[in-house]
Amino acid sequence: MDAVGESVVPGTETAKASAEAVAAVEPRCAVEEGIDPDDEVAFRCDGERFVIDPEDFDESDLPEVDEMFAARLVG
Question: What's residue 26's pLDDT?
Answer without folding.
Answer: 95
